[in-house]
Input
Amino acid sequence: MTTHEVALPSYLEQSPEVRDRFRRIAERPVVLKVNRLGKTFDGVKERIQALRDISFQVRRREFISVIGPSGCGKSTLIRILAGLEEQTAGEILLDDREVTGPGRDRGMVFQGYTLFPWLTVLKNVMFGLELSGATNGIVGVSAEQEARGWIEMVGLEAFADAYPHELSGGMKQRVAIARALANRPRILLMDEPFGALDAQTRCKMQSYLLQIWKNVDVTIIFITHDLDEAIYLSDRIVVLKANPGEVQEVIEVPVEHPRTPEQFLSREFLAVKKRLEELIHPSKEAADMLPIIRMTQVDDDVY
Ligand code: ADP
Ligand code: MG
Output
């Protein structure tokens, strides 16, 4: 046993503040119910069971991350939640109504930049609003004013007339978040939205997202394979395993709110990280190791 292991508390241990927060969350209504969800793909040679028996519930304004190794079905799960893919078993209830296709009650932000390159930031954010002819019931508020409000919310008012190619990756994702939120979805579905960003921008985006979430009545389901990101952002983390994709554990993150980057090194944070490591990377399997083939002469050995 290492000293590291001895020093950390259990990830199940919660301070009175954290316990109280979870008690308050438990009093909120359930927004999303995922009941025994399954998905098999019929491949040319074999059937792939991407998801099996996935069940969890999400309460209003909760921030839930779904984490797991590559290929465990994270994107499949979020595509089914978005109504872009159909499950082969089980059901999804959003506000007690069954999800059977895409809808304005769900906003999506993907890893790849999905802005329309020929439209300005403002027009990109207005796009969904104009398409539906809706101003979300706010009489007299034009789609433009509404869109400008969301652009301001993500701190890009100076870039309203810019085109996507004039923006950095982080700014593009902020526009994508503004566009998704402009439709006032009940839940925001995010599939590795910061996966293509450099580490520093990624950290900033995580803090922005927490600020936005604080100011908007929205429930977030966030897919990632980054352990730190999941812990920093989430109330709870749904941990999946691969082949087939199944829920291993749902972890209540014992790190207090408001979250700050300093907490990355806190005992609670590291305790959860250790647990996630155990669940996601149980041991280095032989299959992960590359065969060692010497490509150089022995006499230029640098060790
Ligand atoms: P993740 O996002 O966790 O990396 P995915 O949801 O993309 O995982 O994929 C889960 C599994 O389902 C993988 O084995 C993948 O190859 C398979 N899969 C995903 N989409 C399809 C598809 N359209 N047809 C066949 N197999 C698919
Ligand atoms: Mg994926």
Residues 33 and 266 are 32 Å apart (CA to CA). DSSP finds nine helices and ten strands in the chain. The longest helix spans residues 199-215.
